[in-house]
Structures are given as C-alpha cells and as structure tokens.
Amino acid sequence: MLRLDLKTHHNIALAYFLLAALLGIFLRLFYVTPLPGNYKYILHAHSHIALLGWVYLALTGIIYGLYFHKTKLSKKYIYIFLATNISLLGMLFSFPFQGYAIISIIFSTLFLFCSYFYAAFVLRNIPHKHSKTLSFKLIKASLWYMVFSSIGPWALGGIMSTLGNTSIWYKLSVYFYLHFQYNAWFLVALLGILFYLFQKLNLDFGRKEFKRFFLLLNSGVILSFFLSTYWTNPPLVFYLLGGLGVILLLIAFYQLFAFILRNKNLLKSVLSTFNYRILLISGVLLVGKILMQSLSAIPFFADLAFNNLDFVIGYLHWVFLGFVSLALFAFLNWLKLIRIPKNAFYLYLSGFLISEILIFYKGLVLWLGLPFFSNYFLLLVLVSALMPIAVGWIVGVNYLGASSRGIH
C-alpha cells in the first residue's frame, strides 16, 4: 500500500535542495581546477533540481497541508507526487550528461504534465470552507501563473527547430518562464501562505483592501514581465508598461508592509522568536528584490544587468537562496513539517550573505574596472560550501527524526 505523509514529502524536497547546492559547488569548482563534465549541462541540472525539486515540492506540499490537512494524502495526490519525482530524477540523471536532448526533454515534459495535474487536483478538490478565503485566492492565482509560465518551455522546442538558440525569441521564452516562476508562482504562493498565517491569527486585512492589493499585485506581476524585454530595444510602449508594472508592485507592497508593521507586535507574540526572525530577514530580502527589480525599469540598469552576468546571477540567487528559501524555512518550521536547527540556519545565512557580497563584488569590479583580488574563486567555493553543509545538517536532523518516529 502506498504510504506518504507531509513530513516525508518535505524531507524529499530538502534532499533535492542539498543535491542542487552540491551541484552549485561543483559548478564553482570549474573556475578553480579542471573537472570532468560539461559545465552547461551540469548548470541545467542544478537549476532544474533547485527550482523544481526544492521550491516546487516545498510549495506544493505546504499548499496541500494548509487546505487538505484534515484528510489523508489521497491516492491521486500520491500518484502525482511519485510521477513528479520520477521526472525530477530523470532530469537529475540526464541533464549532466546530455544537456537538452531527447531523454531530458521527455522528463522535463513529464514534469510539466505533473504540474498541470497538481494544479487541477488542488483547484477541483479544494474544500468549500477554504475556496473563498483571501489566502486561497492568492494560491489559486499562483497556480495559474505556474501553468502560464510553461508557455516558455513549450515555445522553446519550436524556436530551437526553426530560429535556433541564438534567436532573441529563445531568450525571451526563457525569461518568460523565469519571470512567471520567480515573480509570480513563487512570490504569489508565498504571499498566499502568509495570508493563511494572518487568517490563523485573526488579522483582518479587509476585503476591500485585499481587492485593491490583489489587483495591484497581479497587474504589476504581469506588466513587469516587459522589464525582461528591455535588452531587445523594444518600442517605447514596452518601457512604459514595464515601468507601470514596477509602480503597481511598489504600491501593492507598500500596502502589505504597512499592514504587517501595524500588526508586528501580534506577529511577534504568536510566532516563535526564531520563526519571526527568519520571516523578518526574508521580508528584508524581499524589499531588496523589489528595489533591484525597480532599478531594472531604468534602461541604463537594464542594459547593465543584461551585459553583466554576475549581477543577474546575484539577483537570481538573492531571490531563490534568499527570499524564497528563507520564507520556506520559516513556514515549514512554523507548520512543524520540518525542523530548522538555529545554528544550521545561521550557518546557511552566513554562506548566503557572504557569497552574495562576493558575486556582486565581481560584477562591480567588471563594471567599474576595479582591481580583482587573487583566489577569488577559491574563496567563493569555500564560502558557498557553508550552504550545502547547513542544508545537509537540516536534512540529517529531519531524516533522523523521521526514522525515530517511524514515518513511512
């Protein structure tokens, strides 16, 4: 008989995070010493396992736990979960050896179908008592963004066979997918979980205020995609739409942060000090993300980011390793789905912050022509290694805990 619980679900997500982190260290070692393997192929495996193994599984498991927690994991859900893991393992063991080729494309396509089945499962089976809540409205929107983002991967096949991977449409398809993953599916889903927390604490955001926030947020999310087109020197209207998207997002998040500040004492009193601190740090990183995204609305900074890969990598890691992963840590710890040891968290945070400083430093050096210190890449490897060590620590604590409780 198939048996699975949500703690096992998230232990598996953590294991993917550890694998992605180890692949990241391996990639950075390419700049230190000759290594076997194809850098680009391993990069594909790293990014797919990070986004789809860790973040996707963590978010989907939390969503199930919030809205279906009174019921056992259904067989239908378990089958979706198993198929998802088959697709992830297929990508893990095909991308490093062949990049985008027939086997990895088959498993990537399987993952897309699994994500569609998951979205349909949640939307069709959501209990009536949750269907009209503010939190689920955000979750529902995030799931539609997840489905919408897949237009990018579907378009890539046709573009590669007709225009090739040097076409601007190839990059635009990739940016379309990344935008609606990072800035829509991940972001809006995390906000949905945050509103669930508000709901549990009886914090009334207000229906009228939420309607305004929801409209501003979603309009901003959609229009800010045009920021990703600036590098093509598009028509003026694209610049105006991208700039409008940033303004709408700034207004939406001003409204949200003002609400949080008004209720911070209650949040402090109900959440543990540790969980509150993780959410606070994640919130600060979210502010940084919004500010960096806002800067990209200025053509000068958009061109600077496009021509300086270190700034792009720094931003993507800021969002993924910083804001998103820390928010997931806080919510998973709060829901008691995984346990985050304090020392492991601070070790992870140290590795993240110092590696971000080094990445942005390299970007500034290349931009301004400043002196570059020797052994930079070795130092980056050593500092970055703190993150997989910390994640491995968290994985070990939770797997040992699961074994002692007899979790299947």
UniProtKB/TrEMBL annotation:
Keywords: Membrane, Transmembrane, Transmembrane helix. The chain crosses the membrane at residues 12-31, 51-68, 77-95, 101-123, 143-163, 175-198, 210-231, 237-262, 274-292, 312-335, 347-370, 376-400. The keyword Ligase does not apply. The keyword Transmembrane helix applies. This is Uncharacterized protein. It comes from Salegentibacter salinarum.
